[in-house]
Write a structure and sequence with these properties.
Blueprint: E1 4-11, H1 21-28, H2 34-42, E2 46-48, E3 65-71, E4 87-90, E5 94-99, H3 116-123, E6 147-153, H4 156-167, E7 172-180, E8 187-197, E9 200-207, E10 212-224, E11 227-234, H5 241-248, E12 271-279, E13 286-290, H6 295-304
Parallel strand pairs: 6-12
Antiparallel strand pairs: 1-3, 2-3, 4-5, 5-6, 7-11, 7-12, 8-9, 8-10, 10-11, 12-13
Helix pairs in contact: 1-2
């Protein structure tokens, strides 16, 4: 592992037969550019059935075994950018932002501009240093196309305590989503293991082994024919947890092309982190933060005639 931060093994399925190697890997890795993938291949960090000298355009035959060695992050300067951010709370220890959909939280492979961190560096001058230049102040994250509340630490003491609070589950997090279909049970608790989908390593899935415990609680707020507005509380924070759990109930989130189907009603997954309740990491004062729904979410709900006014916590 020396010189590499991760080594990933992937088995190619027959469904991927005929794909270019670089295209296949671009689909496998989220938030990664084709240029970054091609650089990995050119630098012989990708082997196919033990062969190191492979090309970006190598056509897959199916059933190959691919090993990808991910180098350590380059030490680079992440530049401030004058990008709009919606700050809903700020004090000397932290700031809470209502993230727009389509925004990556922090720079990653091939994405060094246009992220939330680039915007935060411009608008907020004091940030914790624990996560270095790539993720200054970032305590947790949301998927690119999930909107909602992100907590950013402004000093190291606040960062450490906030990280502990997320780990100890003392921060109450609630989401709203629009799901396909109508639920048999208005309320429910989902407790499963989540890990890599054995049939498609690009995705996460409910698994019976080699996964991590994931707990999601949900309640249907409103429903119309074929669609439901659902409030979700999570006790764990696994990758794609809510999206995977909703799919496991056969009610995928509207607009989620990864775990459902793309839909002309919504251009992204209708998932928004709207509510945080926790004690301040320094003062211990109880905080309740609500992040208003983004306009695209409101528009889709209105089009479907789902009543977001029924979400009581949004109206307090």
């Amino acid at each position: 592992m020396e010189g590499f931060k991760d080594i990933i093994e992937v088995k190619v399925s027959q469904d991927d037969r005929g794909k270019r190697l670089d295209a296949f890997l671009s689909e496998f890795f989220e938030n990664t550019t084709r240029n970054y993938i091609q650089k990995l291949i050119d630098n012989q960090n990708v082997t196919v059935d033990g062969k190191e000298k492979v090309k970006n355009g190598t056509k897959l035959k199916g059933n190959e075994f691919i090993i990808i060695r991910i180098p350590e992050d380059e030490i680079l300067e992440v530049l401030p950018e004058d990008l709009p951010i919606d700050i809903v709370y700020e004090d000397k220890d932290m700031v809470i932002i209502n993230k727009d959909p389509g925004v990556i939280v922090h720079p990653a492979q091939g994405f060094y501009t246009g992220t939330l961190v680039n915007a935060v560096l411009y608008h907020i001058k004091d940030l914790s240093t624990i996560n270095g230049v790539i993720r200054p102040g970032i305590v947790h994250r949301l998927d690119k196309d999930t909107s909602g509340l992100i907590v950013v630490a402004k000093n190291d003491m606040a960062h450490v305590k906030l990280t502990e609070m997320f780990k100890d589950k003392t921060i109450e997090k609630r989401y709203l989503c629009i799901c396909k279909g109508n639920f048999r049970n208005i309320k429910g608790r989902i407790e499963t293991l989540i890990g890599r989908d054995p049939k498609d390593r690009k995705k996460m899935a409910v698994v019976t082994e080699n996964g991590k415990i994931a707990i999601t609680n949900y309640e249907v707020v409103d429903s119309v024919d074929n669609f439901s507005l659902v409030e979700v509380g999570i006790e764990t924070g696994r990758t794609h947890q809510i999206r995977v759990h909703m799919k496991s109930l056969n009610h995928p989130i509207l607009g989620d092309s990864t775990y459902g189907n793309s839909d002309n009603i919504a251009k992204r997954q209708m998932l928004h982190s709207y509510y945080l309740k926790f004690n301040h990491p320094i003062t211990n004062e109880e905080l309740i933060i609500v992040g208003d729904l983004k306009e695209d979410f409101k528009s889709v709900a209105k089009r479907l005639k789902l009543d977001i006014k029924k979400v009581s916590r949004l109206n307090k």
